[in-house]
UniProtKB/TrEMBL annotation:
Superkingdom of this protein's organism: Bacteria
Assigned keywords, A-Z: Repeat
Protein name per Swiss-Prot or TrEMBL: Peptidase
Pfam families: Clp_N
Keyword Repeat attributed: yes
Keyword Repeat among record annotations: yes
InterPro entries associated with the record: Clp_N_dom_sf (IPR036628), Clp_R_N (IPR004176)
Residue ranges occupied by any Clp R domain in the UniProt entry: 2-184
Length: 189
């Protein structure tokens, strides 16, 4: 499938691996793909994010992703649902971090020293890549671009979609900006 990726999409995937390495994560996850997309300039995805007002708020997105990572990868909706059951995730995170250090619950963290080498893609990242293929196919695009990766991130449930939606970037708004419509079925999910 990688041969169908445009240069921009390949660059996003490579940058996601680099983000995972810098975070000492054991796997590349969907959040790393989003971080890589936020770093892009001059691509379809970067223009769409700018059109949706994300230009000046990219650091806010990064902070929200980091907060979710510290919660062990739980979305805010999952955290709220657990609170309804009497389980207060912020208190648990604070106690664990007090005992074991900041970021001790970070999802996918390898622990130990800085390791380099192959980073496998976690299931959620693989689902995004497959969703990008579906998004491109649904639009009859021959190549998978970084805009398809962004669409796939917004189409599947999870932290990246929640963080993007909190910043005004949804599947529907992206579809409108990229293609001028909002009625396309969710082929990226």
């Amino acid at each position: 499938m990688f041969e169908r990726f445009t240069k921009d999409a390949r660059d996003v995937v490579r940058a996601a691996v680099a983000h995972a390495e810098r975070a000492d994560a054991g796997r590349v996850d969907a959040g790393h793909l989003l971080l890589a997309l936020l770093d892009r300039e001059g691509s379809r995805a970067s223009f769409a994010l700018a059109a949706l007002g994300l230009d000046g708020r990219r650091e806010s997105v990064r902070e929200a992703l980091e907060l979710a990572r510290r919660r062990g990868g739980l979305t805010q909706a999952e955290t709220d649902a657990l609170a309804g059951l009497g389980i207060h995730v912020p208190e648990i995170v604070a106690r664990v971090e007090e005992a074991h250090g900041t970021g001790a619950l970070s999802a996918g963290r390898r622990g130990g020293g800085r390791r380099t080498g192959h980073r496998p893609f976690g299931q959620e990242a693989k689902d995004v890549l497959t969703g990008a293929l579906r998004a491109a196919t649904a639009r009859r695009d021959r190549r998978i671009g970084d805009q398809h990766l962004l669409l796939a991130l917004t189409a599947r449930p999870g932290v990246p979609a929640e963080v993007l939606a909190d910043h005004g970037v949804t599947y529907e708004s992206l579809t409108r900006v990229l293609y001028g419509d909002g009625g396309e079925a969710r082929a990226a999910g």
